[in-house]
Amino acid sequence: QVQLVESGGGLVQPGGSLRLSCAASGIIFNAYVMGWHRQTPGKQRELVAMFSSGGRTNYAESVKGRFTISRDSAKNTVYLQMNSLKPEDTAVYYCNFRKIATAQNFWGQGTQVTVSS
User: E strands of the chain, at which residues?
Assistant: First the structure.
């Protein structure tokens, strides 16, 4: 079955950097679009960054120029490099894989990112 395992969250000071990783198993990597979402208490989960089916990248306006999504198909892994972090980036970050043919969604377990001095 599909399994997504996230890593890389933690506590960082404002202006710092973190890299999140999401390793997928049980999938054919190119059959999915993939991305990162985040959620804070009391708010809806929001898209942060993603690869579309055409391979283009899309970013939330709030992270453009600071975050970079990348992927390694040989490792079935998608990454989120987060630079110039701000306190408002504090959230639980989830990776998401959506099967192109069926629109079925799969989610990672979530990893906490806390930006605080």
Answer: 3-7, 10-12, 18-25, 32-39, 46-51, 57-59, 67-72, 77-82, 91-99, 105-107, 111-115
pLDDT at 112: 98
pLDDT for 53: 79
pLDDT of residue 29: 86
Number of neighbouring beta carbons within 10 Å of residue 76: 19
> Using an 8 Å Cβ cutoff, are 38 and 29 in contact?
no
Q: For residues 104 and 36, is the Cβ–Cβ distance under 8 A?
A: no
Token code pair at residue 36: 């990162």
pLDDT > 70: what percent of the chain? 100
Cα distance between residue 88 and residue 93, in whole Å: 13
